[in-house]
Specification:
Blueprint: H1 2-27, H2 43-47, H3 59-69, H4 81-101, H5 113-141, H6 143-150, E1 157-158, E2 167-174, E3 179-186, E4 190-197, E5 202-206, E6 211-213, E7 222-226, E8 231-239, E9 245-255, E10 266-274, H7 279-289, E11 295-298, H8 300-305, H9 307-315, E12 319-322, H10 335-349, E13 353-357, H11 366-374, E14 378-379, E15 384-385, H12 394-404, E16 410-414, H13 421-434, E17 440-441
Parallel strand pairs: 1-3, 10-11, 10-16, 10-17, 11-12, 12-13, 13-14, 15-16
Antiparallel strand pairs: 2-9, 3-8, 4-7, 4-9, 5-8, 6-7
Helix pairs in contact: 1-3, 7-13, 10-11, 12-13
């Protein structure tokens, strides 16, 4: 009896379990419910409804039905939840893609749409900044029309030549990285020349300059132009130096139309054999004191040694010309040697060279003249000499300069090649005597 009763209890218990299992098997069809849990993330199940087709794992419900008839399979039921657990794992894949799908919640149907829909995302994002930028663009565009208005009207210090004067000097100071602007109301058919005296790192910016030059390896220090019509010209002194720099512009103006010329004789002062570190500086000081311009016939080797002196000669409105490389006696050289010394000197002068040459010692023959003309150089001699290489006093030198100061006179002096201190003194005495006589002193070799 105990066996029968025990068996009966086990059978009853099995039936109860079978009933419970039967209830679970009837709940298996809601295995579609694993799709519903993803409703907590609505976009995810909707994007991949087809993936649950492996939810043809609706076959597990069939196994659940079998479990009703055979309670022994009740222990095999637990695998049924496993597909349910696997399905959320499959749902994790859409979750990884969800960042692309989240904004696409409006179109859950086809997984390809997320590729097109990011474009939809970009459009509003781009449209919004466009709306924001358009006012900014409008504001940035508004000042642009103002700039062209300011550009044609340059601002700066106006350079004017007083009546009857063709040479002026303009001092100034420019800070590091700054520009000092000057405005010239240029007249047609007039040659304007501006030469800058300044330390390294300060140079000229001349937008309309037809002739802009400087010493080798340096920024432009000289600008000249002739305009076909009256117009405003902007000239700027630019500084790339690290400290504020003082500068001086020497400005000259010369008429090209051969119109009215101020009355009075024109005299040409010339200096040979420089530049010299002492005497060239002294000569320049005297010339500047009297507002006189001259021509310096320079030796190429001396220019190579003292380029800063050549720079000052140019900056103060004087011109330079060829006096050979080593002060050779050209009459004793071959044609090839003449070519070399003349060409080498022209090369070191560069754009500052003029088309003039003076032979040292006045040694001139047919070959020297021929070779000079082939180089495009005019031979310039002299009409009067200060004889300053002789043992003369300063007063005697001054007398010779005054005597030679006739209209068209070309006076020979020296700023190098020996002690020229008495030349400097004689020049000062002569120019003091000649002041107020209406004599114009001009360079014989013009650029």
């Amino acid at each position: 009896m105990r066996r029968g009763g025990g068996w009966a209890r086990r059978v009853a218990t099995g039936l109860v379990l079978a009933g419970l299992v039967g209830g679970c098997s009837t709940g298996a069809p809601p295995a579609a419910v694993p799709d519903t849990p993803s409703t907590s993330e609505p976009a995810v199940p909707s994007t991949r409804p087809a993936d649950p087709e492996p939810a043809a794992a609706s076959s597990p419900p069939t196994t659940a039905t079998a479990a009703v008839t055979e309670p022994a399979e009740v222990e095999a039921e637990p695998p049924a939840p496993e597909p349910v657990v696997e399905e959320p794992e499959e749902a994790v894949e859409p979750e990884a893609a969800q960042p692309e799908g989240e904004p696409v919640t409006a179109d859950p149907a086809v997984p390809v749409e997320p590729d097109a829909e990011p474009e939809v995302e970009m459009v509003p994002e781009e449209t919004e900044p466009v709306v924001e930028e358009s006012p900014a663009t409008a504001t940035s565009d508004t000042p642009e029309p103002e700039d062209p208005v300011a550009t044609p009207v340059p601002t700066g210090r106006i350079i004017e030549f007083p009546h009857g004067e063709n040479l002026i000097t303009i001092p100034g100071t420019v800070g590091p990285g700054d520009r000092q602007a000057y405005v010239i109301e240029a007249v047609a058919d007039i040659r304007y020349t501006f030469t800058l005296g300044a330390p390294t790192g300060v140079w000229l910016d001349a937008g309309l300059g037809e002739d802009v030059s400087g010493l080798p390896g340096e920024r432009p220090r000289r600008a000249a132009l002739v305009l076909p019509a009256n117009m405003t010209w902007l000239l700027e002194v630019v500084s790339t130096a690290e400290e504020p720099a003082d500068f001086e512009i020497t400005a000259t103006v010369r008429s090209l139309d051969r119109g009215p010329v101020p009355p009075g004789p024109v005299v040409y002062l010339t200096f040979d054999d420089g530049p010299h570190p002492v005497h060239t500086t002294e000569v320049l000081d005297v010339l500047r004191r009297y507002g006189v311009r001259a021509t310096f016939f320079v030796v190429g080797a001396m220019v190579q040694r003292f380029p800063h002196l050549l720079n000052r000669v140019l900056l103060e409105g004087h011109t330079v010309a060829n006096h050979t490389w080593n002060h050779e006696n050209l009459a004793k050289l071959s044609g090839e040697a003449i070519d070399r010394t003349l060409e080498r000197t022209q090369d070191i002068l560069g754009a500052n060279a003029t088309a003039c040459m003076r032979p040292p010692y006045g040694a001139l023959d047919d070959l020297v003249r021929q070779r000079s003309e082939e180089r495009g150089l005019d031979v310039i001699m002299w009409s009067a000499s200060a004889n300053d290489w002789l043992d003369l006093t300063a007063e005697m030198i001054a007398e010779r300069i005054v005597a030679g100061s006739v209209d068209g006179g070309i006076i020979l002096m020296h700023d190098g090649g020996g002690d020229r201190s008495r030349t400097v003194q004689g020049l000062d005495i002569a120019l003091q005597q000649l002041s107020g006589q209406g004599i114009r002193f001009e360079p014989i070799c013009a650029r």
